[in-house]
Every structure is written in C-alpha cells, then in structure tokens.
Description:
The protein has 5 helices and 5 strands. The protein is an alpha/beta fold and 132 residues long. Strands 2-1-3-4-5 form a 5-stranded parallel β-sheet, with helices on both faces.
Amino acid sequence: xxxxxxxxxxxxxxxxxxxxxxxxxxxxxxxxxxxxxxxxxxxxxxxxxxxxxxxxxxxxxxxxxxxxxxxxxxxxxxxxxxxxxxxxxxxxxxxxxxxxxxxxxxxxxxxxxxxxxxxxxxxxxxxxxxxx
Length: 132
C-alpha cells in the first residue's frame, strides 16, 4: 500500500532560529518549505503548490505577512490556501488586522509545540478537509 503524501506547508518566517525549529518540528507531519522574505515567498509560490501556510507577520523587506496574506487572498489560484498567522504581535488590534487580511487562524509567540501542531492540523482539516 502506497503511503499518502504529507501535506505541504510553507513557513514564512524571517528569524533563522525559528525557521530551523519550525522546519524540524513540522517535518514529522508535513513536507516543509521555508522562506524568509517577500522575494523568496514569491519564488516558492511560483514553484510549488501548498496545502497550508504558516505566516509570520513581521518580515524583512517591503511587505509584511499581512500584505502577503492579502495578496494570497486576492489571487484566484491561491485564495483558498489556509493561512495560520504565528506572530509576536499579541494585541487585539494585531489579531483584528490579521483576520481582516485573511488569515484563518491567529496564534501568538511563544506557543507550546502541541498547541501549534493542533492549530495547524485543525485549520488544514477545517479549510481543506485534509486529516493528519
């Protein structure tokens, strides 16, 4: 029996230590790709199809995670990709802005590993019907 393909997740995170941790942690359940800026984000989005995106809000470059989320939602080819925001911005207005931009789930750093995995799995199931 052929093993089902792992869902593909794009981690959009500009902090190298966070990238490495998330990549290692999520690779048990996902096929993981990482990008750290708007430039690498656009390259990844052109090259591959993703089942879900883990989006940091603060990024290097001209566009932050909210702007990238708005662009994902405005594009007919990518508008249905679930987006989980993971950010250090913890104020209610940050949550409101993220939800308004189009994120499906809003999480703040620091977060317990199991809570992060559950939130990603639940969002993927609710939005795409993919069960892990």
